[in-house]
Amino acid sequence: MTGSIEGLERFDSPGKGRGLRVTRPFKVGELLFSSPAYSYVLSVKERGYYCEFCFTGKKGLAKCGKCKKAFYCNVKCQKGDWAMHKLECSAMTAFGENWCPSDISRLVARILAKKKMQKEKCVSEKILLIGDMQSHVEDEDNEKREMCEADIAGLYRFYSKHLEMPDHKDLLTLFSQVACNGFTIEDDELSHLGTAVYPDVALINHSCLPTVIVTYKGTSAEIRAVQDMKPGDEVLISYIDLLYPTEDRNNRLRECYYFTCNCQECKSQSKDKAKLKVRKRSDPIEPDVISNMVRYARKTVKEFRTFKNTKTPSELLEMCEQSLEEMGAVFDDSNVYMLHMMYQAMGICLYMQDVEGAVRYGEKIIKPYSQLYPPHCLNVSSLYLKLGRSYLLLERPSVGISALKKALAIMEVAHGKDHFYLTELRKEIAQK
């Protein structure tokens, strides 16, 4: 570990390499540790809504006087961020609308700048502690290699005036490390705010039965227990969305992290039957019909991800509705592929300000979400938040407040009772 954390120790986890385990008991909701980001970057889409330095979201942020594109709480935050913002400030002005590095290129630029600033051997070692990524560079398919080369090209194009670039091989390794070990900082509704690197958190291994959850306070990561833990228990998080059946989860893990999970849930596949539930009919549905529909569903999910940034909201909503009609002939409404497309449809309805449409989808999703996800899951709390706030917009205060209170109960465990999200949510409930 990059430092000594009370109650935790690093160890060699059989079949997984390095890992963390607890050396004292932890109760559900208890904070194991908090980790400042080694390096982080606010998403370009969130500029103007959140402070670039501390990720505080509020109105009336002050803009950078030079580029007029970065925003801060005050002069203190602006000065705190200058060492990183200066990498982009003049470039954004010079390139104008052509300034378009990816978030991962922006994050790598900041990592390189920080390593140069600190000029300490332990700094480079700290980044390498994220994991031995060399083999993963070799494992990447052509599509990923092409994306990585494009990100490196962007790094050279937009940052070469301010950075001394490592050789190409070292850059490939660093990009691969960040791709596999970077964390997405999210708000209370799981909207993407930015990307960060946390070397200590990156030591934690994956399980589909996680013992802890990672949440964010500003740019720091906080790790809290979601199960009671006894000395010797391994600290485990989920790297992926746990809604999906075992085969899908492991396909995702192999695609992104180059390993297969062997946790108890993956061995028993105990929830797969419920996750793949089919409609009850007088004449049972043939197994090959179900298999074909699963293939169709997986293909549709993949296509939707591909088209998400190119099609209009109306076109995307039509895709959702068509796939739901097709799958609904075989799948129960609680089937995870149905839930996936309903959740996408709900998001599109919210974007299009069709609050009633969003509520219709949300009401179908919430019960199976609560049953299929693990306890204290942010996917469930964020859905309760969206539903509760939608009910309030429709002037349905009683069900709105009930949904917000259910979100609050989950967030008290996941975020801690003193988190500012909880403070704001309690105010929101009290005002209604």
UniProtKB/TrEMBL annotation:
Pfam families: SET, zf-MYND. Gene3D superfamilies: 1.10.220.160, 1.25.40.970, 6.10.140.2220, SET domain, Tetratricopeptide repeat domain. The gene is smyd2b. One of its GO terms (cellular component) is nucleus. PROSITE patterns: SET (PS50280), ZF_MYND_1 (PS01360), ZF_MYND_2 (PS50865). Residues 51-89 form the MYND-type domain. It catalyses: L-lysyl(4)-[histone H3] + 3 S-adenosyl-L-methionine = N(6),N(6),N(6)-trimethyl-L-lysyl(4)-[histone H3] + 3 S-adenosyl-L-homocysteine + 3 H(+). This is [histone H3]-lysine(4) N-trimethyltransferase. GO terms for molecular function: histone H3K4 trimethyltransferase activity; zinc ion binding. Residues 6-240 form the SET domain. It comes from Parambassis ranga (Indian glassy fish). PANTHER family: HISTONE-LYSINE N-METHYLTRANSFERASE SMYD, N-LYSINE METHYLTRANSFERASE SMYD2-B. InterPro entries: H3K4_H4K5_MeTrfase (IPR050869), SET_dom (IPR001214), SET_dom_sf (IPR046341), TPR-like_helical_dom_sf (IPR011990), Znf_MYND (IPR002893). GO terms for biological process: methylation. Keywords: Metal-binding, Methyltransferase, S-adenosyl-L-methionine, Transferase, Zinc, Zinc-finger. Its EC number is 2.1.1.354.
